[in-house]
Amino acid sequence: MTSATVLARLATGALLLLATGCAGAAGSGAAPDTLRWAMGTAPSSLDIAHGFNDASTTVQFAVLDTMVGLGPDGQVVPRIAASWTHPDPRTYVFTLREGPRFSDGTPVTAEDAAYSLTRHLDPAVTSQAASYVTQVKKVEVTGPRTVKVTLGKPSPTFLATAALAWQIVPRKLAAAHPKDLGSPEVGTLGSGPFKVTKFSLASGVTLERNDLYWGPKPELRRIEIKAIGDAETLRLAISSGEVDGTNDIPASEVRKWSTLPGVTTSFYPANNIAYLSLGVREGPLKDVHARRAVAHALDRGALATLMTNGHGGVADLMLPKPQILALYGDNPPKLRAYPHDVNAAKAELAKSAHPGGFTLTAPYDSGSDDVKALQAIAADLAAIGVKLELQPLPTEQYRQRMFSHQDTPLQLVDLLYGTPDPGEVLPDLVSRASAGPQGFNFSGYGSPETDARLEDLGRYEGADRAAAVTEVLAEVADQVPYVPLYTKEAAVALRKRFTGEFGTWTVDVFSTIRPAAGA
């Protein structure tokens, strides 16, 4: 989250401006350094506190610089902070680099940096990124260019999550707008490589190169962005040359994209996990045997094939594949599993309080391709007497219902994360702090014991940390508040008049894109 894309993707889509009367790059009329970008949904906010989703963070990371960042290998690298020290397990001291300015010319100060972190903990802000910084106890300005962060407990994930959540905004602007910073009415102000010149929920976003940016200047001068909700319309727009690029390619449709003339489609492992969230607080799914019955009923192999088309696979653990590789290498733990087995599913159902079956409602975003997966899931569940009623909702209405944590007994979630550390994911899924409004614990699962395990993760490194993570994953596998479904490869499609480098840890997509030689 951005999210995320949360990342999610929650993982994790957004925008386009169609050029009038164009057919192909040569006749588009667009300047060589103007990129017309398309994604499936519009950003809800240009502030991560209120828009922690793919569409929003794609724009945010081009505009708002962070205190630290992630390099191509997932390692933490300097950004606004030129350096930092770690004098004890709970303390980080950051030294800001000299020179960064917001795009209006105002210097970036230590006060701006400190406030940009602490605001996520302010109840008045109700930040969607709050779960990323719950370990922060105190943030102090200790000098003209130094910020000291004190954690409540040691946390190996702090720097990696700060690379996502610690977007630097002016203190004066953010303090004046705790609820609506990043909205079309208020906007935002950043020190990143681009600046916002237009933001409308109806007509899209326009970015222009920020000539005051302290780092390497992007080769793009202008980016025009607007939403195209229909996947086939988006594909045709790319094919015709009306649009130059997108990173919102449905995994189930990749074959259509891979053969587009004049278009290069690149793939890389996504840091995502698609899963079913099962509401444990009330209704039939309050019974663990009912949840295990659901898990056994699902043909996850067929579902992965349907939704990834060969660019992904079955998810066995409740973590994204890149995080599993970073933590366990090629030896992930073997935990309680639920292979597709109708008889086993019926046996679990017979142990539950609803042996004859039950009915569930599954709301979903009508603008996504989730309906394909949900229809397959409904067919699997019908085989054991569980009826799944699908309820399509407009994108924004679905988001509001999703984050209100009301009347969502079963939902398909696909979250995209930003760091190589499981400490980013697990608090989202099973901490009680994330089970309230704006949190990502959609199942409502949690306990004091689980929270204590999550807090203890910060005390471990290396093999001990892997063992501690395994304990939490084993609990999830046993209690089944979630059913892991599939992981995916991400894809970027670009007209050949542009080129770029993309990877799992690329957050600022636009700065990697440049006009192709001779274009």
Automatic annotation (TrEMBL):
Transport as UniProt keyword: yes
Signal peptide annotation: 1-25
Organism superkingdom: Bacteria
Transport found in the keyword field: yes
This protein's UniProt keywords: Signal, Transport
InterPro entries on file: Peptide/Ni-bd, SBP_5, SBP_5_dom
Domain Solute-binding protein family: 75-431
Entries under CDD domains matching the protein: PBP2_NikA_DppA_OppA_like (cd00995)
Pfam families, per database record: SBP_bac_5
Family assignment from sequence similarity: Belongs to the bacterial solute-binding protein 5 family.
Annotated PANTHER family: OLIGOPEPTIDE-BINDING PROTEIN APPA (PTHR30290:SF9), PERIPLASMIC BINDING COMPONENT OF ABC TRANSPORTER (PTHR30290)
Protein name, UniProt field: ABC transporter substrate-binding protein
